[in-house]
Every structure is written in C-alpha cells, then in structure tokens.
C-alpha cells in the first residue's frame, strides 16, 4: 500500500466537502441549483499485460449541478417571477447574454426590468395596441414606459356585416307601469309641456354617464326617457350642464327616434343612437359617438340601470404591473385601464449540464449545452410562470448535513490509510 491511494482519497473527499459546503451556503439563494461530486476509480496496468496490477485510488471526475425544481414561495413583489418547469430567463448586459432561474426582478431608473445584479430581462415588447413586436426573433430588453398612457375618445367601432358597436352602452329597465305623458295635446289630462331638466315632472326617468373627448376631458351625457304611449319612450339628451345646440337640445329638439318595446317587454330595435356635438375646447370636433341600449327592457319593475359601459378613458400613468402564466406583463394605469406591455420569454437547452456556471446564479451557453431555444412560457418543453413568487434553492438541507457527515468520515478514513502507511515505513526505517 502506498501513499497514492490515500492522497487521492483525501483530494476526492475534499472536493466533495467543497460541493456540500457550497450547497449549504446557498440553501437560501433564490434559483440556486445544488451540485454533487461524482467519482471514479483509478487503476494502473502493466505494459506487457492488460490485467490489473493495482488500484491507484479514486478521483473526482465531475461536479455536476442538479437542475431539479425548487419549491415556490410567494412574495409581495409582482415582478418576482418563478419558473414552474423547464427553462431559464434570458438576461443581457450590453452584448453579453446569460441565463438564470433567479426571478427577483425590479425596475431601474430607465424603466428596464433588471435582475439583482443589473442584467436586463428580455422578451417580446408590445406596441400600444398590445401587439407583440419582433416575436420569433431575438428577444430584446423589456422596458416599462413611465410616461402617460394617453387618452381615448368615446366613439364607436364598425362591426363585421355592417352596423356599429356603441361607444357608450346602457343596460336598464324602463318601468312598464308608468303612465304615458303627452307633450303636444293641451287637452290631455297629463299635458307636461317641453322637457325641463330641472323639473322631474317633465320626464319619466333619467340617467347619466361620463364620456371622454380626444384630450381625455370628461363630459357628462344625461339621457331623459319619457313614456309617451304604451311601449313607446321618447329619448332626449343633455350634454354637460347646459343644453347644446340643435339637434341635441333636450328642451326644444327630439334628437333620437322613439325607443319601443314589444308586448313581452323586449327592445324592438337595438340599433345604436347617434350623438354629435361641437366642442370649443380644442379637442377633436364634432364630438360624435353612438349610444347603445342593447339589453334594455320594459317590465313592471322600477326603473334601474344595470350596466353602463363606454370605450373612452382619460389620460393615465403606470401604477403597477402583473405577470400571467404565459409571461404577459399587464400594466395597470391610474385611469383604470390595463394594457399588455410585453411578454417574458423562456429559453431551454438540450443539455443543461453543459451550461457554464458564471456565478451570480447565471449560466452561459457552451458547445456542450447546445444552442438556446427561446419561446413563450408554456409552449414546447418550457414551463409556466408564477408572478409574485420566487423559486427556492433545490437544496435539501437535511440531506446535505447527512452527506457532510459521510464525507467527513470518508476524509478521516483516507487520512488513516496515510497514517498506517507512515507507521509501516517507520517500522522499516527502524530495522537494524
């Protein structure tokens, strides 16, 4: 027995202790992947024969990382993102590209989403209409715009097959039990004269909604409904606080056709009503949009407004973000609007074991890893994302402590073989 075997055992055990110690040191590192030492024996052969002469000890052939899934922990940061399944976040720092499982992100002063060591997260940016730009090409750094989202005027949308989708939509019930009012016949018992917004006796019901011009300024459109005959309702409007010029003056003009219902209380014609007025504020004029009454009914229950929807909104600034399972970043704005502003991509490799460890929880592409394959989360062999969460290290701390004891015993045993060899040699030296 020589010193070679014991020394090789000490070297292998020392490297095993290094790997175990590194695992324990990073047991709280987000996205960390534990390592293990892998060993092989060493033998010497004679020149004349292939038969084994003697074992020469052991050696560490590799320290490999184990890319198993870590536990998912919830956080309070919506930009913390955990990967469930395969894949890596693609990060860039200038021209340098790296990959990580650490999803602890924040926004830098320029609005870029960055990791805790400063690299920028990449993906597909979206335009103002939430359409992905350069999808399928090289992912680019994702940036949250800190500026205003801009305003959108209340309007209408052309629909396939003709017709329009109303920019302002009411859903209500007009009370069928209300008595009809007569504006024109002075001999009628219920003659009420011209509509007066200040006199509730001159109309049956009213409701209001806000609409927005091209500069995002809010205006109030009030609609007055007057029952003039069975199943028939007159509709007049008032824009802001004063009657507007013809044909939208509710006092002197009838801007809309009557709204009629069938004997079952269903709306006979749900074609949107047209509204138009002149603005002098500098916003786009005429200010025109369609008002829809689809879903409005006439039953014997009291008047009530069930829904009000309109497609305009004022200006707003970004107040928060959320990330869905497919990586779409949804911006939340102060005007109540939500808009998709980008999509996080994931990258995978044929051989993750071939990635080069760059430190800081980052890996680099190598020839052994194969080329990167980048796509949307949840597609192909890529995992999905979980917002406001992080992936813990996949270190089993209990198991590592047991491994530490085993490696320590192995180290001590190899040291004993060296000590025994030294004792034998000392005996030989002491021969007289």
What is shown here, in short?
The chain is mostly beta strands and 432 residues long.
Structure, described:
- With 432 residues, the protein is mostly beta strands.
- The chain has three domains: 2-67 and 395-430, no CATH class; 72-148 and 320-391, no CATH class; 157-310, Tick-borne Encephalitis virus Glycoprotein, domain 1 (Sandwich).
- 13% of the residues lie in helices and 36% in strands.
- The chain contains two helices and 29 strands.
- The strands form eight sheets. Strands 5, 6, 9, 10, 21, 22, 23, 24, 25, 26 and 27 form an eleven-stranded antiparallel sheet that branches. The protein has a four-stranded mixed sheet with strand order 18-19-13-20, with no helix packed on it. A four-stranded antiparallel sheet has the order 14-15-16-17, with no helix packed on it.
- A hairpin with a 4-residue loop joins strand 22 and strand 23 (338-344).
- The longest helix is centred in the last third of the chain and has 33 residues, at 397-429.
- The chain starts with a helix and ends with a helix.
- Residues 244-248 have low confidence and may be disordered.
């Amino acid at each position: 027995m020589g010193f070679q075997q014991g020394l090789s055992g000490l070297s292998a055990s020392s490297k095993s202790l290094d790997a175990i110690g590194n695992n324990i040191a990073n047991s709280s590192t987000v996205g960390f992947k534990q390592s293990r030492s892998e060993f092989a024996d060493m033998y010497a052969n004679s020149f004349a024969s292939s038969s084994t002469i003697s074992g020469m000890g052991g050696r560490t052939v590799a320290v490999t990382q184990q890319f198993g899934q870590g536990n998912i922990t919830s956080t309070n940061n919506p930009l913390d993102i955990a990967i469930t399944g395969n894949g890596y976040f693609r990060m860039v720092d200038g021209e340098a590209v790296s990959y990580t499982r650490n999803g602890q992100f924040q926004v830098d002063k320029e609005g870029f989403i960055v990791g805790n060591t400063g690299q920028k997260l990449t993906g597909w940016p979206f335009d103002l209409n939430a359409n992905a730009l350069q999808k399928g090409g090289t992912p680019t750094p994702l940036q949250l715009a800190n500026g205003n989202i801009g305003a959108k005027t209340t309007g209408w949308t052309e629909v396939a097959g003709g017709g329009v989708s109303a920019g302002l939509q009411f859903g209500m019930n007009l009370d069928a039990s209300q008595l009809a009012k007569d504006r024109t016949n002075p001999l009628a018992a219920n003659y009420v004269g011209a509509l007066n917004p200040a006199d509730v006796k001159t109309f049956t019901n009213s409701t209001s909604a806000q609409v927005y011009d091209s500069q995002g300024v809010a205006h109030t459109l009030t609609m007055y409904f007057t029952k003039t005959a069975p199943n028939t309702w007159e509709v007049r409007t008032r824009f802001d606080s004063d009657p507007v010029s013809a044909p939208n003056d509710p006092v002197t003009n009838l801007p809309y056709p009557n709204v009629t219902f069938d004997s079952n209380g269903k709306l006979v014609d749900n074609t949107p009503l047209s509204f138009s007025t002149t603005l002098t504020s500098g916003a786009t004029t005429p200010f025109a949009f369609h008002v829809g009454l689809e879903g409005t009914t006439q039953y014997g229950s009291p008047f009530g407004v069930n829904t009000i929807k309109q497609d305009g909104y004022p200006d707003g600034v970004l107040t928060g973000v959320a990330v869905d399972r497919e990586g779409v970043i949804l911006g939340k704005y102060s005007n109540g609007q939500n808009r998709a502003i980008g999509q996080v991509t994931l990258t995978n490799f044929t051989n993750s074991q071939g990635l080069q460890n760059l430190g800081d929880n980052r890996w680099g592409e190598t020839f052994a890893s194969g080329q990167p394959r980048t796509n949307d989360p949840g597609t192909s062999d890529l995992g999905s994302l979980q917002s406001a969460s992080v992936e813990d290290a996949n270190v089993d701390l209990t198991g590592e402590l047991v491994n530490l004891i085993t490696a320590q015993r192995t180290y001590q045993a190899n040291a004993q073989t060296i000590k025994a060899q030294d004792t034998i040699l000392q005996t030989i030296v002491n021969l007289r």
